[in-house]
Write the structure tokens for this entry.
Amino acid sequence: MGTGVDPTPGGPPTVQFPAGTRLSMAAVSAQSMAQILAFAYAGLAALPVLMHLANAAGAPLGRLTVGGRFPGRLPTAWRALALVQAALLCIMAGAVLARAGVGALPLAPLFWPAFALTFLSLAANAASPSRPERLLWTPVLFLMAAAALGVGLT
């Protein structure tokens, strides 16, 4: 017998596990919730990743990053750093997904550093001197932090 979901006619789906495996419905629900929250985190992280990639490509979005220090295009060195930031966000999303049991499990030990960096980023963006940066990224990072906290507590 393989692992899978077996829809019972007229009733809720039942989960089948190999013989001898015990797993409570609460554990299944907690695991499902952690995965939902991890996917939410990854989806939200895609937003700043896309912005950093656009900055690296020369888009005039400087007011939305680094405290709005560069209102147009970022200088070349800062554009390279935008690529580093995009890669870091991808690794953080991978760590959150791994903590929830999805994706590259070797990234799971990076969950707590990713969690801490998410909260530090939230604080930094909330205190940004750039109003557009604050208005755009504070809510996104708040939701990312909440999702990461949910994954960490399940």
Observations:
- The two ends are 28 Å apart (CA to CA).
